[in-house]
Amino acid sequence: MGPGPSDVHPRVLAAMAQPTIGHLDSSFIDLMDEVKVLLQYAFQTENSITFPLSAPGSAGMEACFANLVEPGDKVVVCQNGVFGGRMKENVERCGGIPIMVEDEWGSAIDLEKVEAALSSNPDARILAFVHAETSTGVESDARGLSDLAFQHDCLTLVDAVTSLGGSPVLVDEWGLDAVYSGSQKCLSCAPGLSPITFSERALQKVKNRRSKVQSWFMDLNLIMAYWGKGKRRVYHHTAPVNALYGLHESLVMLREEGLENAWDRHLRNHLVLKDGLEALGIEFLVRKDQRLPQLNAVRIPENLDDAEVRSGLMKYYNLEIGAGLGPLKGNIWRIGLMGYSSRPENILLCVGAFESLIKTCSALATVHKTLESR
Amino acid sequence: MGPGPSDVHPRVLAAMAQPTIGHLDSSFIDLMDEVKVLLQYAFQTENSITFPLSAPGSAGMEACFANLVEPGDKVVVCQNGVFGGRMKENVERCGGIPIMVEDEWGSAIDLEKVEAALSSNPDARILAFVHAETSTGVESDARGLSDLAFQHDCLTLVDAVTSLGGSPVLVDEWGLDAVYSGSQKCLSCAPGLSPITFSERALQKVKNRRSKVQSWFMDLNLIMAYWGKGKRRVYHHTAPVNALYGLHESLVMLREEGLENAWDRHLRNHLVLKDGLEALGIEFLVRKDQRLPQLNAVRIPENLDDAEVRSGLMKYYNLEIGAGLGPLKGNIWRIGLMGYSSRPENILLCVGAFESLIKTCSALATVHKTLESR
Description:
Two copies of one chain form a homodimer. Chain A is built from 13 helices and twelve strands.
């Protein structure tokens, strides 16, 4: 129950153990085609450029920047956690100029600040932001940010690593342009793949570049010759065949459950966990209307030791939760209820484990105090 | 029996289906440490920077160039097949200047030409070459090329995708500096990971760069904080946990068999296949002393149709072999005897299938001729 990878469903694990076939085998091409259609469903898009990059979400982020940013390009980057900072790093490594809009870690992106940054940088052509900040459990208003970008003639470049499959990511309805995610969060697949979708507008920008994409491996122009339409596929790299079996199965399961039902499940389980944790006196970092149901960031109660509790959960309950990152290190825990991990039995396990550990820690503290006062 | 992915051993498939644990879990860190030691064995090196990149071999190639090449750097690139061409592309995308040394597809790299290129480009600091050309089945003299590079104060950047585990790759003894491979060839693991090793000399070059590595995802300085020494690992990206279970198991199996035994097995099976194919009148593209035992490139006999034979092998024998690439398209087949695929039963299947198909094609041709002459 950390911030991902989430538990992987046995059906997905079994799929990954099927015999490896060739990456140009016609049966495998059929599977790729199904993966693309299923990802279009997950992203709620008709974008033809919708496929999984053969590398983790961090590479998905880089692929979006590497394709869209050229040397000298100004990019407005919103930062309210770890991954906004990584976006800045990516812009710089592509030779772009990041215009930073910073918000407190644990708060959503402030649309007024973004509006101001876009207004004072009329030559910016990309607005990059994290929809669901994995480091803080905050959801930002992707639709509102997309509207602002559109008004200022900018493309949106969006991190949906933690949101996809767990809460609405409506690519077409919200008008998002380049979106990347990860296989290991709410899709309940093993880590290692990064679903990506590019709008027609974003694709035009890639096609009209003045310079080649600096990464050969991530160049969409080349990748799409392999992931593109029709029976004729051009070899680009050897696809991670078994990993794609797994992603395929996880997407089939999402389709079976239904996207809306998956969102509902994540929300309902979050509310139950919240009640349980609050009953133990554990408070949430993020204000109610900005919380991600799949990633519960809670403040570490003053009397408890971060590392002690996390290692106790691991040792006695075989339960992993996430630590805080950056300025939140030592201040918060991150409890994932993602994908297959978002189940009532996990909530019971988690709340029960916390209750027991808090009692133990409290009892031990009493003993310590008594000993010290002797 | 294509040019990779090879058949994956059931033990490796089973390993990939084990439950996913956290990428920062201490049990997983232990597994990472074992993978590094096992890869040092496979590469025959004591390089501390020896790890699997979380992406396919093509990304491994790019990682080597992105870390070692800076804008304006001259790189001598040998091309005698597809992958030398991809190296050129990588040099250019890193802002480097490729100095090409070209040899015929199907021949080994000519050391005299390389010597001449190094002599006339004394400012070049990298010699890049493919040890085992997957597109042609040719092995080049890595030790000889490394000696030349050393004499001219160049680092070597070496593609060992198809050689690692199938024929000797003696990184330390030969003095190779940056070497990348793939999980899906002679290691018999699923595709998706790229084992990489960097010598101390190569690492110094990365550390003394004038500019940042243009790829965040492939920046060795950052990756090694996660794959480095000791218990303390810094999160970089979410590692492909299940894929690494698989690689670990495949490397354990290589250790059990013994590297020398694995090389012997690949060589012995190659010789048997060669005898069988030659008995059917099928000739090899590559001269005897330059052949890779794990990748048999054979000329398509004049009376046979490339696509017809390959689809017949697939349809009637469930047997995949590789087509020719580039100038060799339609002229050769590529028959892999890699890793777990390098077994006597596969040789029997392959030779038997060819014998039967050749007879069928010949009989059908006779019928056609008779019908036409009526």
